[in-house]
Amino acid sequence: MNPLQQYPMPDRPSNPTPLEMAIYNYELLAKKHYDDKRRKSATSKEKLQRDYEHLQKERKRLESYRTENKN
Fold it and tell me: How far is it, in rounded angstroms, from Cα 8 to Cα 11?
């Protein structure tokens, strides 16, 4: 996988739960933080990649809980 050069803009969930909105808002803060920090340091790219992957895993985990609770 190619390392991220910039934190991607997160997709806002449709009909979100409060927890999904909290994660979305956190992703917005992470984007702002890493976009600002990207200009200053090359080592932050590793942290950006790690944080992005972690947030994507959490989003998938929440989606699986949501689908389980619908049934």
Answer: 9
Range list of H helices, the chain: 18-38, 44-70
Matching residue, tokens 């994507």 = 56
Give the span between the Cα atoms of 68 and 64, in whole angstroms.
6
Q: Say what the pTM is.
A: 0.55
CB 37 within 8 A of CB 45: no
Contact present, 35 and 7 (Cβ < 8 Å): yes
The average pLDDT across 5-31 equals 84
Q: What is the pLDDT of residues 25-39, one digit of tens each?
A: 988 888 888 777 766
Q: How far is CA 22 from CA 25, 37, 43, in A?
A: 5, 22, 27
